[in-house]
Amino acid sequence: MSDELIIPQGLWTGDYYNEGTGKDDIFDTLKEECGVFGVFNHPEAASLSYYGLHALQHRGEESAGLCVSDGEDFNYHRGMGLVKEVFDRDKLLSLKGDRSIGHVRYSTSGDSRLANAQPLIFKYRDGDLAVATNGNIVNAPRIRHELEQSGSIFQTTSDTEVIAHLIARSSKDFVEAAKDALGQLVGGFAFLLLTNDKLIVASDPHGLRPLTMGRLGDAYLFSSETCAFEVVGAEMVRDIQPGEMLVLDKDGLREERFAAPQRKALCAMEYIYFSRPDSDLNGSNLHSSRKRMGKIMAQESFVDADIVTGVPDSSISAAIGYAEQTGIPYELGLIKNKYTGRTFIQPSQELREQGVKMKLSAVRRVVEGKRVVMIDDSIVRGTTSRRIVNLLREVGATEVHVRITSPPFKNPCFYGIDTPDRGDLIASYKTIEEICREINADSLQFLSPEGLIQAVGGDSSSEYKGGLCMACFDNDYPTRTDFDGEEKFGCSC
C-alpha cells in the first residue's frame, strides 16, 4: 500500500485546510482580518512572538509569519495555515535576533496565497524592511495606481505594500520617510515596521484598530490584544494612541506623531465579538464588558423563559450577564465542536445545510420542552441564526427568543473586517420583525447603540459615541470613504 496521503475530493475547497471560503462558508459570521505582535530588545524574540501569535490565532487562521533581526541580518519564515503548523522547533531556532514582528492573517476570498502572507519583506536603498499590519487602507488603490504610473513594480496584491514603496521613494531618513508615508494613508490600521536597527509602531489617527504596548524586563512588546502579554508573562503598559508613532532603536523608546489625533473611534466589534474575553480594551476587560451587554440587553428587552444559552464562544459572557440580570438559569444549551476548522464538507447544498451540526450541537436534555433565550453577538446574512434556531427547535425547544448584543449590522466595514456587500446584510433591507420571521424565532431584539456604549464603559456625553466606531450600525464613517476602489471591503493586509 502506498504511504501517500489520499485526500477525498471535496473534503475542503481550498489548497489547504484553513483556507477561507468567503460567501460559501457555512457560517456567515464576520471575519477579523489579522493580528500583529512585536518584540524589541529580548534575546528570545522569536519564541516570544511565537507564543504571542498563538494567543492571537483567533484573529487570523490562514497564514502566519515572523521576521527577526539580530541588528545585521533578517531571518524570517512565513507559511499558510495555523501558527503551530507554520512553525516548528527547528524553524524557531533558525530565527535568531532580539527584535521581531509577527503576523496572523485572514484574507478575503481569492486573495489567500503565500505571497501575501506577512510580514512582507523588502530590500531598498537603506537595507531591509519588514512590514506587518492589521486593518485596511481605504485610499490604497489610488496610491497604488499613482505609484505604478510613476514606475513602481508591486510584488503582491496586498495593499500593505504601498507603505514600503512610499518609504523607499522618499529622500528623507527612515523615520521621517515613515512619518510622511503614514500621513498619506486613510483608513484603520496598526503598523509594525522593522529594519535592522529600528522598530516603528503606529496607529491610525482614529485608533480604529487595537494596538497595545507591554514590558517584559528591559524588552518592549506590542500586540493587537493584551491576552498575548499574559501568555508570555509581560505587563501591559498602555494603548498606542491615535496618530502616534513610536520609534525604538539603540537609544531606547521615542514617542512621536505622524498625525494629529482625530475623534477616537475604536471598532465596536472588537468589544462585541473579535477580541478574546481575557483581553482588555481601553482599560475595560472584554468578559466584563460583554456581561454588561447581556445585563443591559435584559433590561431593554426582557422575555419570560426557562433557560438562557449563548452561542459559543463569543456570546457566552453576554448570556451569563442576561441570566444574572433576569434570574433565568444559564445553561449550556449549545456546544461547540472545536475541531472542525473553518471549512467543511461541501459536496451539496443539502449537506451544507446540515454542516452546522459539525460545529454546533444542541443539548437535547437541556433544551427539550424549554422556552429558550438564545444570546448571540450579531446577525450578518441571517442564515446562521436561522440554522441555530432550527437546531434548538429540532431538539425540542418550545420557544426560541433571540437577543443580539449589538445593534443591527447594516453597513459594510472599510477598516479591516471582512464584511459582505451592503445588499447581503439582512438588516440593511429587512425590518426587525421581518428578520425575526426569516430566522424562525419567536421574538428578536437587538441591543441599542446607547446600551452598547454604556456596556463598554464609554461616556457618550463627553466623547463622541463613547470613542467607538459604529459605522457598521449607523453608516457614520469616521474617515472619508469616497475613494476609487472603495468596493473592496475587508482587510488590505
Describe this structure in words.
27% of the residues lie in helices and 25% in strands. The chain is α+β, with helices and mostly antiparallel strands and 493 residues long. The chain folds into 2 domains: 33-262, Glutamine Phosphoribosylpyrophosphate, subunit 1, domain 1; 270-474, Rossmann fold. The relative contact order is 0.14. Residues 1-26, 342-349 and 483-490 have low confidence and may be disordered. It comes from Paenibacillus anaericanus. Mg(2+) binds at residues 314, 376-377.
What would a concise description of this structure say?
This protein is of the alpha+beta class and 493 residues long. It contains 17 helices and 25 strands. The protein has a seven-stranded antiparallel β-sheet with strand order 4-3-5-2-11-10-12. It has a six-stranded antiparallel β-sheet with strand order 6-7-8-9-13-14.
How many helices does DSSP assign? 17
Residue share in helix: 25-40%
Question: Major β-sheet, in short?
Answer: 7 strands, antiparallel
Distance between the termini: 43 Å
The percentage of residues in β strands lies in 15-25%
Low-confidence stretches: 1-26, 342-349, 483-490
Counted up, domains total 2
Give the class from helix and strand content and strand pairing.
alpha+beta
Question: Strand order, biggest sheet?
Answer: 4-3-5-2-11-10-12
Brief descriptors of the model:
17 helices, 493 residues, Rossmann fold, alpha+beta, 2 domains, single chain, six-stranded antiparallel sheet, seven-stranded antiparallel sheet, Glutamine Phosphoribosylpyrophosphate, subunit 1, domain 1, 25% strand
